[in-house]
Design goal:
Elements (H helix, E strand, L loop, with lengths): L1 H35 L2 E2 L2 E2 L9 E9 L2 E9 L6 E5 L11 H4 L8 E6 L4 H6 L10 H19 L4 E6 L1 H12 L6 E5 L5 H19 L2 H10 L10 H13 L16 H20 L1 E2 L4 E2 L3 H4 L2 H4 L7 E6 L7 H10 L5 E6 L8 H20 L1
Parallel strand pairs: 5-6, 5-7, 7-8, 8-11, 11-12
Antiparallel strand pairs: 1-2, 3-4, 4-6, 9-10
Helix pairs in contact: 4-5, 6-7, 6-8
Length: 373
């Protein structure tokens, strides 16, 4: 009986040891899963629990792929601004430190290289036959907001979209308005076709008034939109005429941060821009056919006039891409708790000192309202 008891004890001890070894990987896996939720650039992310400076950048997983995100602030408890760049594939992150210098003293600034853009393109290029869609990129953006809430807490978040990013921004706030304190659209894209037609007509009017024969010949050869084969000719003409009407941006804005190695990566960045432009227009280079594309999906005056949060548009008076008349018509159709259209003289489609100053004044007003609440 004593031998049986001793044997039973040995079996119990062996069983306990085995159970311990079996349970350790489970516990480790649980801890690792929790850590993986906070991964940022391959290292555990610091969460914002007390006022502190934060400057982090790296890849996080959005929509099934790793995408480049950076956070910059002098105090991580400040309200957030999430910037949605234009293009597609024209990320502002290489130039953000210069353009938005000082903003980190009052806000937490978040830059994101969207799918098939910038550093995200360098990390993961789309597979053959893969398509960029407005629905997928909207979902990417909303997943990023959830990630920011995890890292930074439920801070008030201002969503600021520019050009293509403004169409993406409207789709995001339309789906989850409660996640955002305000939406700011700069150079607001309203309709792929309507904006392109208005752009063509605006350039034609200016070229006719100036009797610019070369430009008129190009416009005549192109004809008015829509186009079976997309080209960059109309955009080149808008840049030419905006240079005469708008104040140029400070030269130092376009000196990229060294971390982005733009000169070294220029061919890849150009490939991303070419790919995204054709995807945006829905042009298949193999078949020579224009089919579906995000350009054709953007009809905000038809699909997005009821917005359940404060809405602000900042519009350059000299913008020949997202022409003021189209922006104003959409603005008038919007139903929102509060809305403002801010016109900026001597500003075109891209950012310049006047447009960034208008954005800064606006976000300071929004911040004061948030603090008051």
């Amino acid at each position: 009986m004593h031998e049986i008891t001793q044997q039973a004890r040995r079996w119990m001890l062996t069983l306990q040891i085995l159970l311990c070894w079996l349970l350790i990987p489970v516990a480790d896996a649980a801890n690792q899963a929790q850590a993986d939720e906070l991964l940022f650039g391959g290292a555990r992310t610091v969460q914002c629990k007390t006022p502190a400076a934060m400057r982090q950048q790296g890849y996080i997983r959005l929509g099934g792929i790793e995408q480049w995100v950076s956070i910059n602030t002098s105090n991580c408890t400040f309200p957030l601004i999430l910037f949605l760049h234009g293009g597609p594939a024209n990320p502002i992150s290489p130039f953000a430190d210069a353009i938005y210098a000082g903003w980190e003293q009052q806000f937490t600034l978040v830059q994101w290289d969207q799918r098939a853009s910038g550093k995200t393109w360098l990390r993961k290029q789309p597979a053959t036959g893969e398509r960029l869609t407005l629905a997928q990129m909207t979902q990417d953006g909303l997943e990023l907001v959830q990630y920011l809430q995890l890292i930074l807490g439920n801070r008030p978040l201002i969503l600021m979209g520019s050009s293509w990013g403004s169409a993406l921004g409207v789709k995001m706030v339309q789906q989850q308005p409660q996640w955002f304190a305000a939406y700011v659209g700069s150079s607001q894209l309203v309709s792929g076709l309507q904006n392109q037609q208005a752009s063509y007509q605006a350039v034609l009017t200016l070229a006719t008034a100036a009797q610019a024969q070369a430009a008129l010949a190009q416009l005549s050869k192109m004809g008015p939109p829509p186009y079976a084969r997309p080209s960059g000719m109309l955009r080149r003409l808008t840049r030419q005429y905006e240079a005469k009407l708008a104040t140029p941006a400070p030269a130092h804005w376009w000196q990229a941060s060294p971390a982005f190695e733009l000169e070294k990566q220029a061919p890849a960045y150009e490939a991303a821009e070419d790919y995204s432009f054709l995807q945006f227009m829905g042009f298949d280079a193999e078949t020579g056919q224009t089919t579906s594309g995000m350009f054709h999906d953007i009809e905000l005056q038809r699909d997005a006039t009821a917005l359940k949060l404060p809405v602000y548009f900042i519009q350059g008076e000299a913008d020949l891409v997202t022409v003021p008349a189209v922006t104003r018509a959409y603005f008038n159709a919007i139903r929102a708790p509060h809305k403002e259209l801010i016109m900026v003289a001597k500003a075109g489609h891209g950012p310049n000192a006047q447009s960034i100053a208008a954005e800064w004044q606006l976000v300071q007003r929004i911040r004061a309202q948030l603090i008051g609440q």
